[in-house]
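Data deposition worksheet. Section B asks for the primary sequence of the deposited chain exactly as it was used as input, without tags or linkers unless they were present during the calculation. Section C holds the resulting structure in token form. Section D is free text for depositor observations; keep each observation to a single sentence. Incomplete worksheets are returned to the depositor.
Section A, Depositor: J.P.
Section B:
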Amino acid sequence: MTIRILKDRHITLGVTGGVAVYKAAFLASRLTQAGAMVDVVMTEAATHFVAPLTFQAVTQRAVYTDIFQLAAGESPGEVQIPHIALAKSADLLLIAPATGNTLAKLAQGLADNLLTAIALATPAPALLAPAMESDMWAHPATQANAATLRERGTTFVGPGAGHLASGAEGVGRMSEPEQILEMARVVLGRGEDLAERRVLVSAGGTREAIDPVRFIGNHSSGKMGYALALAARDRGAHVTLVTGPTCLADPVGVETIHVESATAMCDAVLSACDGTDALVMAAAVADYRSVEAVAQKIKKSGDLLTLQLSRTPDILAEIARLRETGRGPKVTVGFAAETEDLLENARDKLERKRLDLIAANDVSATDAGFAVDTNRVTLLSADGVVQALPLMTKEDVAHEIWDRVSQLLLNL
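Section C:
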């Protein structure tokens, strides 16, 4: 699946010598599937683990192994010096695995092979995924080299802890390809339109306890809220995600706060929203809770069970009152999950909650409701503009919303 921040981006993937090279082949494949143009540069040591043909097959692009290897230019008969051409074309220099030897060369500014020459010549940001034995990673020299590179602006992902090639357990495993891909998105997003903006997103449904076993909940999967958090992160924002229980992994590069109840979500949102540029409330917050959650499991004692319910806090109403005092988010976006009278109900909520924008969706639709990867929303803004979006992925919906938020922030 194509990922917006990676589409048509040039990524120079450096592969150095270590058993984790097999993971780099999968990483190259995933980056290519996501829409990136991946130019693989292998050190001589790396070719002893995996043949260059493997990377050429998954990227459908030439693989470079020799600093004296000339590259075809854009015009017929034109040739290019590879370390200059690849350095200039790269949007990101990604080295995975990055051995201790390569870290040392990069820290010292050595350029004794094609990859290190590219690293010295490129203005592109660098992302390194170290992989080595624990003692090598922990060695003061390696730690000093890593610190030097971080001071120069290099980003690291990993290494992780676990089983190593030697059979030992410890820190030194290369991060998994999906985690590296996510961090590549973080690094590439630093120059996008939400760079340095602070945004807050809520996601998932809340659970209101009845007893230690049962709760009042809803069908929200959290997918829309998580898509909003990821899209904002990819556009350079500092993102805080307040989420109810879901089956989704915490997004890389996002501060994630886990809550259970509507009250806990309200407290977390109010604590985090001061000084934020934008709040997007995509969570399906319960409207009612049990007046009293009993301490022990309720036993069956008849055909009927009566529960007394009371209202939960209205988070968006609290945010509206906060904004009246000059505090809180500059822009507030809500969601209206409806099953009937979609636009009427959404417009009423937009006005009552004093929102800048609301996304209305019919959750009774099988292709655009809860727990699916697509959505069909209508955006209504406070200035009266109504925009009906076609069925699209939740990532694309998220970007449509952030496009509107970005413009609202620019107009403030």
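Section D:
Residues 194-411 form a domain with the Rossmann fold fold (CATH 3.40.50.10300).
The chain has two domains: 10-189, 194-411.
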